Amino acid sequence: MSGPARPPDGDWLGTPFLRFERRGSLAHLIVDRPEARNALTPAMYFGIRYAVDLLNRSPELVGLLITGTGDVFIPGGDLGGNPVDAWSPALGLLGMDLTPFESVRNSPKPIVSAVNGICQGGGLLIAMLSDVAVAVSSATFRAPEVFRGIADTGYAQYLPNQIGPARARDMLLTGRTVDARTAEAWGLISRLASSDDALLEEAEDALRRIAWGAPQARTVIKREINRGYGRPDRQSMEISLASEEREEGWRAFAERRAPRWIPEDIRPDHRL
């Protein structure tokens, strides 16, 4: 990046790896960090949260489309702890204050995710909590937090209510990868694009159609839908983020190995 890191200001989201583009009354948020496969730094997590707030503070904007670059939407957080775009020491702290999930869930103005490829971790939460998520047929979906030593109470609360307890247990406890057609059939995402090239056009069409609805009526409907998700146990997740399991899970990921909590006789010889 050129120049010192600096906090969000106007349409600058506080990191060179996010772009906020105004396209008439709609805005696009593009996650663009190809050298790290779009892994989110703390500044990027906060930048997405800031973008949602910027949307809702801008009277000329009516909706936001979130997408990635290349064949990756968002794979989750950067477990390497790369500080390249950190503009505050507070960004080095683990915690839910940086994350955009509740902002996406509760945004009065509509948010649509255009899932252009790999979607897991925090990226899957963003797609799930968007008003509509449109994906290419090659997209894949995964929630690998348990392999990182993290008890993600957001997933544990949201996912059973979205796809059912049995499927949620399968995804959260085994870390299985779900293909796009299965994700659509389960209700993990809203729809599949007719082709890769049509993704942004079809996602933007969905965003326009939501924005055609009466804003106050739309907000009431969204509030009632959100009530069905319930509330995650944030305190337990904060405790998990500070645990020894989380430390070992992140070390294992960085060292490209399986965590040592797995007994040797069933421990795989590769990173999970």
Write the layout of secondary structure elements.
Blueprint: E1 18-23, E2 26-31, H1 42-57, E3 63-68, E4 72-74, H2 101-106, E5 111-115, E6 118-120, H3 122-129, E7 132-135, E8 140-142, H4 153-163, H5 165-174, E9 178-179, H6 180-186, E10 191-192, H7 199-211, H8 215-227, H9 234-241, H10 244-254
Could you list some keywords that capture this structure?
single chain; 272 residues; alpha/beta; 2-enoyl-CoA Hydratase, Chain A, domain 1; six-stranded mixed sheet; 10 helices
Decide which structural class fits the backbone. alpha/beta
DSSP strand (E) fraction?
Answer: 5-15%
Compute the separation of the termini in Å. 31 Å
The main β sheet shows up as: 6 strands, mixed
Individual helix count: 10
Shape: globular
* Alpha carbon gyration radius: 18 Å
CATH superfamily: 2-enoyl-CoA Hydratase, Chain A, domain 1
Q: What topology, given as strand order, has the largest sheet?
A: 1-2-3-5-7-10
What can you see in these coordinates?
The protein is of the alpha/beta class and 272 residues long. The protein has one domain: Alpha-Beta Complex (2-enoyl-CoA Hydratase, Chain A, domain 1), CATH 3.90.226.10. 38% of the residues lie in helices and 15% in strands. The protein contains ten helices and ten strands. The protein has helices at 42-57, 101-106, 122-129, 153-163, 165-174, 180-186, 199-211, 215-227, 234-241, 244-254, and strands spanning 18-23, 26-31, 63-68, 72-74, 111-115, 118-120, 132-135, 140-142, 178-179, 191-192. The strands form two sheets. The chain has a six-stranded mixed β-sheet with strand order 1-2-3-5-7-10, sandwiched between helices. Strands 4-6-8-9 form a four-stranded mixed β-sheet. Strand 1 (18-23) and strand 2 (26-31) form a beta hairpin.
